[in-house]
Amino acid sequence: MDRSAPGHGRLEIVIADRLDEIGRVASALDEFAARFALPADAVIDMQVALDEVLANVVSYAYPEGQGGAHRIRIVLAAHPDALEAEVTDDGAPFDPAIAGAPERDAPLEHRRIGGLGLHFVRNLMSEVKYQRIGSHNRLVLRRRLRGSDGGSLDQ
C-alpha cells in the first residue's frame, strides 16, 4: 500500500455512553490516520469535531443515571478526497442543524450558555448531515482533504 496518499479505508468503533470512553475514539482516529497517511490538519479538525459531538451525545442524549447502558457506534472512513466519521446512537432525537448560531453580537452577560461547540463542528467540517432512522440518530461528519477539489482548500 502506498502510504504517501490517502486511500480507501474503514474502521468501526463502539463505545459506551461515558465521557471516559471518548479517549478510545481519539486513539483509534490517530492510528487510522497514520495507517492511511491522512493530513494532520484534517485529522485535528475531525478530532475536535468528534470530541464535541460525542461529549454532547454522552451528556445530553440519554436520561440521567443511565451512563454506560447505551452504545455509540463510530465509523471512520478514509476516501481519496475526504475523511469521514459516522456517529450513530439511540439517544433522544437531536438535529445539530436546528441549533441556532451562537449569539456573538450580544454582550457576554446576555448570551445563552452553550452552542459554541456545534458552531465549531459546523465550521471545521466540510459537511455535517443528520438523519433520524427509526430510533437512532445518524450524524455524518465529512472533512474534505486539502486540494481535493482542485484548489487549495483549508476545510
Oligomer: single chain
On the 0 to 100 scale, the average pLDDT is 84
Count of β-strands: 5
By CATH reckoning, the class would read: Alpha Beta
- Give the CATH architecture: 2-Layer Sandwich
> What does the largest sheet look like?
5 strands, antiparallel
Contiguous helical run count: 3
Domain unit count: 1
In CATH terms, the superfamily is Histidine kinase-like ATPase, C-terminal domain
Helix/strand order, N-terminal first: EHHEEHEE
- SS-based class: alpha+beta
**What is the radius of gyration computed over CA atoms, rounded to a whole number of angstroms?**
16 Å
Strand order of the largest sheet: 1-2-3-5-4
CATH fold node name: Heat Shock Protein 90
Strand content: 25-35%
- Weakly predicted, low-confidence segments: 1-5, 150-155
Helix fraction, binned, reads 25-40%
Distance between the termini: 26 Å
Description:
With 155 residues, the chain is α+β, with helices and mostly antiparallel strands. It has one domain (9-144): Heat Shock Protein 90 (2-Layer Sandwich). 28% of the residues lie in helices and 26% in strands. It has three helices and five strands; from the N terminus they run βααββαββ. The protein has helices at 22-35, 40-60, 116-124, and strands at residues 9-16, 71-78, 82-89, 127-133, 136-144. It has a five-stranded antiparallel β-sheet with strand order 1-2-3-5-4, with helices on one face. β2 (71-78) and β3 form a beta hairpin. The radius of gyration is 16 Å and the shape is globular. Mean pLDDT is 84; it is low at 1-5 and 150-155.
